[in-house]
Specification:
This protein is of the alpha/beta class. The chain is built from 6 helices and 7 strands. Keywords: Oxidoreductase.
Amino acid sequence: MEINPPPKSLRAIITGASSGIGKATALAFAKSGIDLALVSRSSEKLEAVANAAREVGVEAKSYAVDLAEVATVKQKISAIATDFGAVNVLVNNAGMGYTNSLENTSLADWQQVIELNLTSIFQCIQGVLPLMRKNGKGTIINVASIAANNAFPEWGAYGVSKAGVVALTKTLAIEERANGIRAVIVSPGAVNTPIWDTDTVNADLNREAMLTPEIVAQSILHTVLLPPQAVIEEMTVMPSGGAL
């Protein structure tokens, strides 16, 4: 299928845009002429990404938001969509890694993973849906994981959160199809991002064998550039060497 160049009217919100997959997606979108509203906790890192996007020639604004504060996410994303204007793409990429056996996972840890990896995505979606419905078009890409459909020891809470993202996206696709809104699941295998350096992840894997953020970003971009009459409902992107 031939992919047309994106119209200049494409305007995207990307969460977790200060590093990893989010940053790579922002830069890939910028090179394709897509204007950007960048969301993450770190305003300094966000602005660096925004500056890089502006150098390519697109409009880019940074919005410092802590998506872990789920009670305020819907309102803040709605305000971003209003401020940035005519948002028709949302990439829900922000999330956290977590490793521990189910037996040793505390309730507080469980809730933290579910709230950031799943509930915040639900709230981001609710924040943009009214505008997308009004305009009769939109594409929402939710970054899940192969852990949604494959059980890995000590990745229980993480896997459950990503399985929730898959179910959420499939339901969204059915509910919003008539409103011209496409919902996409992108499930990567292991990706070499800063998630492996966080305090909540304890895993010793060969990071050189992992996917790069840029590979996943190109996959996300591909789903956005499809003509309106087509949709990639679910995409799995794996390292060629298989699961690590």
